[in-house]
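Appendix B: complex inputs.
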Amino acid sequence: MLPVLVVHGGAGHIPPERAKVSIAGVRSATRAGYAVLRRGGSAMDGVVEAVTQLENNPYYNAGCGSVLNVKGEVEMDAIVMDGKTLASGAVSAVRNVANPVQLARLVMEKTSHLCLTAEGANQFARDMGVAEVPAESLITDYARMRWRKNLQPDANPVECQMGKMGTVGAVAVDMEGNIACATSTGGMLNKMEGRVGDTACIGCGGYADNKVGAVSPTGHGEAIMKVVLSRLILFHMEQGQSAEAASDSGLAYMKSRVGGLGGVVTVDPQGRWAARFSSRQMSWAAAQKDTLHYGVAAGEHFTQSIDEPN
Amino acid sequence: MLPVLVVHGGAGHIPPERAKVSIAGVRSATRAGYAVLRRGGSAMDGVVEAVTQLENNPYYNAGCGSVLNVKGEVEMDAIVMDGKTLASGAVSAVRNVANPVQLARLVMEKTSHLCLTAEGANQFARDMGVAEVPAESLITDYARMRWRKNLQPDANPVECQMGKMGTVGAVAVDMEGNIACATSTGGMLNKMEGRVGDTACIGCGGYADNKVGAVSPTGHGEAIMKVVLSRLILFHMEQGQSAEAASDSGLAYMKSRVGGLGGVVTVDPQGRWAARFSSRQMSWAAAQKDTLHYGVAAGEHFTQSIDEPN
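Resulting structure:
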């Protein structure tokens, strides 16, 4: 069953004209991450590769294409976690970097800390020789249009957010049985300056433990935080639930207790996986035994050979 | 059994000459928070009152008296959580405010977000009319001395940290059975600029749920984050463990899995409470049925009337 990699490109209400583009990017990122695993790369290498590809793809709310905060600026959160040691790295409210997920990995590998925020995260990026990119290079016309629209007095950014392809993330188990997760996001549409969502927060925006599994979520960040969703789902798995049942339990609890919608990709140590969501759609793909699985609407589950063109 | 309030003033290796001062402040803060509960105040009012007192007390690593980052500056994290709704508010890497715990409460009450960081948190403080205090007013001679000492090439800030009175926090159940927690800290001695520890991270630096209980931790922040300690302890309680047994289980797991030491104060909905630690000491106090309980070394448990002078 190993290796396996599962990727999401955000939960929400994805309009039909955007669903095709959304699923294409997720399939491509899944292929890239799985290629890393297939040639013996680590689960961490695989999830970072997949998430990097989606950060570089302007159709997702992460890296280039991130939503804008209320001031019209991009501030990004990202996290990685290594299930062998429970080591983790995160950045919050970071600017001017193309790949926050790679910076999060550097926090894990090169510091004694788990999370660096704002200017401190950018100072660390400079110290590590990470290229600083112009703020404008991360902003798409689509993001700017939505920002302007949500500055109107009658706007509802939370509602509007659910129509946007969202946060991106991945979970993987490599050939040695090591597990990792990665998540990256531009956050909430028209958020306040300095808003930190679930993605930078371990247990909320991701968790990986070789003994239990891994989760990467997407959806309403504040709701995910209130129920510490990723760790919650893994607790259900520790109690004997399957990755799929635990994911559904966690999402159902989030909906009933705090009224939040979202989705997750989940793996267990044996390589069993799930891509589940309580939102209307979530673009997702999984690669296992050289088969690519993917879908976007509830109940959808297509398969093709991993080597077939997109 | 209600109301009840339990407070900690940090876990670590507290030298005898500082233990007396440490426990005096915690007892005083516990009395103040309990007085709020006794006159019908909410659990949230009680924990914020207790933590505010400790932030204002220069002997603790929170508010005035916070440890300094590597640049010699104070950057603070704080969190509050309301167990009725799972609402929460946090600030990370905030500067120039006397009471980060009160700002965290404003994030919860006045925004749609759960966490604001760095300059965004300070901008929000200004928008709310929170007084800006000079950076120098938060820095004690003791903090500056320790910062200088840890700039030496052979310094070990993590080890040194364990000799410092640490993070402060409180949990409470009010007369209506509502539960809350609050935690506040200056973080890790000589930390990197922008380092965010467990305190700003829901599930790690605190969690409160009316159906289960509440936890506020202290100790090695990065270890607390890796095991999502507060939520972990509450999961054990959901599985039927007592507040005391669950706290011990969580701390033992943190020690064995990631090598971290710390302590917690914990309550359950019936008002049963625990103050447990794996570090050498933790200054703690609890108020219940007009009795003040307190201690600092392992096995210590003194009691006196709540109305007796300190």
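Chain B touches chain A through 47 residues (CB under 8 Å).
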